[in-house]
Specification:
Mean pLDDT: 94
Shape: globular
Radius of gyration: 23 Å
Oligomer: single chain
CATH architecture of one domain: 3-Layer(aba) Sandwich
Structural class: alpha/beta
Length: about 500
């Protein structure tokens, strides 16, 4: 799929945020002045299109200017390796060490963007690359295009980078009834109707749902500003229900497995990936279809990393799906990051597939709960400000490591996964090595397919606790979740 580059080169993309294009072109000027060939998109593009371009053009790495789903006052800089995957922790440390050695007044070289464009050290990424990306996304389809014609969809790019690619891939795959939220259709880094452009937040979906009510559409899609995440709302009687990232991920996992089995395209020894804080019920769904579900650290880059390991072994066809609870999904190996364009296509065709059978996504979700037990996921954050707060967070993690908890909320602790020490400790005192990068994270595995993950935030003065609960009914699951949360609250208060 990719071309081979004989010299150092970089691909650059950017989203709709204020000054994103300015920052992207400035980065290009610096790279060009340092003898690095630059390929840059002429217009804003989704983050996964950047990952694709790196691989297709055979670049040494890539950069996308975006602050993802954060409010308008933020912007950011994502860095990618030659594999199209976001750089992992060790590489980031090396880059930071180099940055710290640079004198920003004496060591920064720039070449005029216009001059570099004329001389060829900067080139715009050709439309062919976008065409190939759209074709790669479409190749992940598992459905009959004819089913898609009658599905009515409301789509909002939330004033971000998703409009062109999402609408194009949907239309090329047979979707004719797409209504775009006009107020959020075109790029606008101030996000005037959506101050927090995060599809996880109900306010971000409100305009889309209003459009769906007026147009009697059945499905609402929203991609975040750099279009690597997607959230959905589905008609539920007279109202619309927002699905969580876990719920959408479980539905997609089940749909992909079901369809690939039916089509005869399930590979030998199939494997899927989820983050350690993503719902544990996904493991049961995968097992049902004979799919190995592997867990990775939080962050889609670690899923991309695992796909790379499969490729090194000549086994990338084993990969069928990866997802995380924060609305990130990927079904193919053509990119190494979560892909809101790919996810939008799969969600729509999944919706159309079940509609043809007279089923809603909520009915399918409830059937999964009936089969595997009702599951809930929730999250708690605990603030610890200042130096004393940092000390307290360290004390909490130390105490949790030293205190061998026998049970939590009346459920036996079967094992503790310590990602800092790279060890799984079982209650019978046996141990197992964890072959993942070290991280200050603890995961308590409880009987009955439930768990708690505890970790300090890497960017904020807070501790985070993630609860994954399974029970026979929704009522029992909610009661168990409350008990687990209360016990966790008490523990954090005592320490």
């Amino acid at each position: 799929m990719s071309r081979t580059s004989t010299s150092q080169s970089i691909a650059i993309a950017y989203d709709s945020r204020i000054n994103s294009e300015v920052f992207a072109r400035t980065a290009a000027e610096v790279f060009a002045a340092n003898g690095i060939k630059v390929y840059i998109y002429k217009e804003l593009m989704p983050t996964p299109a950047l990952s694709f371009a790196i691989r297709y053009l055979g670049c040494s790495g890539g950069v996308v200017i975006t602050a993802s789903h954060n409010p308008s006052k933020y912007n950011g800089y994502k860095v990618y390796g030659a594999d199209g995957c976001q750089i992992t922790t060790d590489v980031a440390k090396d880059i930071l060490e180099y940055i710290n050695r640079v004198d920003i007044f004496l060591d920064i070289k720039k070449r005029s963007f216009t001059d570099a464009l004329i001389e060829g050290s900067i080139s715009f990424i050709e439309e062919e690359v976008v065409d190939k990306y759209i074709a790669a996304v479409s190749s992940e389809s598992l459905s009959n295009v004819e089913l898609n014609e009658n599905v009515s969809i409301v789509y909002t790019p939330l004033n971000g980078a998703g409009r062109y690619c999402v609408t194009r891939v949907l239309r090329e795959n047979g979707y004719k009834n797409i209504v775009i939220v006009k107020e959020q259709e075109f790029p606008d880094g101030s996000f005037p109707t959506c101050p927090y452009p995060n599809p996880e937040i109900s306010d971000a979906m409100k305009l889309g749902i209003d459009y769906a009510i007026r147009t009697e559409s059945e499905l609402v899609l929203a991609t975040d500003p750099d279009c690597d995440r997607v959230g959905i709302a589905v008609k539920n009687g007279p109202d619309y229900k927002l699905l969580t990232g876990n719920e959408t991920g479980m539905l997609l996992l089940d749909y992909i497995c079901k369809q690939r089995n039916m089509l005869g395209t399930m590979p030998n020894h199939p494997v899927a990936f989820k983050s350690i804080v993503t719902i544990d019920m996904a493991i049961k769904i995968a097992e049902y279809y004979g799919v190995e579900m592997q867990e990775v650290l939080t962050g889609f880059k670690f899923i991309g990393e695992q796909i790379g390991y499969l490729e090194e072994k000549g086994e990338k066809e084993r990969f069928i799906f990866g997802f995380e609870e924060s609305y990130g999904y990927l079904s193919g190996t053509y990119v190494r990051d979560k892909d809101g364009v790919n996810a939008s296509l799969l969600i729509c065709e999944m919706f159309a597939y079940y509609k043809e059978q007279g089923k809603t996504l909520l009915e399918v979700l409830n059937s999964l709960y009936a089969q595997f037990g009702y599951c809930l996921n929730s999250q708690r954050c605990y603030q610890f400000e200042g130096v004393e707060g940092l000390k307290k967070m360290n004390m909490i993690m130390q105490s949790l490591r030293e205190e061998r908890l026998a049970e939590i909320a009346g459920r036996r602790v079967l094992a503790v996964k310590d990602y800092k020490k790279s060890i799984i400790k079982y209650q019978d005192n046996t141990e197992e090595v964890i072959y993942l990068p070290k991280s200050n994270v603890l995961k308590f595995i409880l009987e009955g397919n439930s768990s708690i993950v505890v970790r300090p935030s890497g960017t904020e003065p807070k501790m985070k606790a993630y609860f994954s609960v399974s029970a026979e009914t929704q009522k029992k699951a909610e009661a168990l979740r409350r008990q687990m949360e209360e016990e966790c609250d008490d523990f954090f208060m005592i320490i």
